[in-house]
Amino acid sequence: MRILIVGAGAIGGYVGARLLAARKDVTFLVRPRRAAQLAQAGLRLESPLGSCAIPSVRCVTATTIDGTYGLVIIACKAFDLSDALTALSPAVGTATAVLPLLNGIAHIDDIAHAFGQERVLGGQCTLAASLAPEGGVRHLNDSHALTLGELDGTPSPRVDALASLFADAGFGAAASRHIRLEMWEKFAFVASAICMTVLTRVAPARRGDAAHGRLAAPILSEFRTIASSAGFALRPMALARARMILDAPEPTLADLIFDDLRSRAIESDRFLEDVLRHAQRGAAAAPLFADAHAALRSYRDTVHPA
Hints:
The chain folds into two domains: 2-176, 3-Layer(aba) Sandwich (Rossmann fold), CATH 3.40.50; 182-303, N-(1-d-carboxylethyl)-l-norvaline Dehydrogenase, domain 2. Helix content is 49%, strand content 18%. The protein has helices at 10-21, 32-41, 81-88, 106-115, 157-168, 179-200, 210-229, 236-247, 251-262, 267-281, 287-303, and strands spanning 2-6, 25-29, 43-46, 52-54, 59-60, 69-74, 92-100, 121-126, 129-131, 137-139, 145-150, 172-175. Helix 7 crosses helix 10 (267-281). By secondary structure, it is of the alpha/beta class. Keywords: NADP, Oxidoreductase, Pantothenate biosynthesis. Pathway: Cofactor biosynthesis; (R)-pantothenate biosynthesis; (R)-pantoate from 3-methyl-2-oxobutanoate: step 2/2.
């Protein structure tokens, strides 16, 4: 199966490196600058689960896509999705499966609108990684679980086949009949961590901070209400896991959020907008997320004026 990965950043690079190490047929869709970097240095992965170096990496750009692919994995930043969908058109055929590995919920509708819902799978991965200045990928924890499924929850041969493909590459891969719910449950801790970080200006990993103690529970409660208004009842175990992540001394999540806030294109802003959009649709109150969104907009306009 020909596999096209959109983006060779932290997540796309990690997934691609694992698949390439397992001798899968992988091509990256990247910008010319990243293509040149990969052509010169290859792709290196440093991971506690096993490092690898791929000396030769096949890349295409938006103008050089060479036909359709059996699987397209979308692993770009949220703010790059629109351009990516336009570029991807020649790569998506009638039998192509499109698997996004993005945080949030809004991207599903965007991708389905571009290519048809029948081609789109739901997916989420539990993986913390960053891109080193020289272009290599650093795995920041010891997890790389990946779950995927049909959006309507039905079992399917293609999902089972893709779960096996990822398992062959060493992932803790599983087919799910509740992938939309699992995406919401992952988004619970991602969005809540962003909200808490913006409101307190303190990393979620710094335990003992009084503001965190007061905010973790109401932020998660607010998110749970929003998810419920969208038709997804978050399970107690998932909420407990989200609370544990917010409370635990886990610097990687905080570091990734602060790195995003320092960048010119702030992805966290898109995630808060996603939460508020669903709150508005479901007539759910979201004062904490609204305050965080306003504060983040003010910060962005001050630090990165247009």
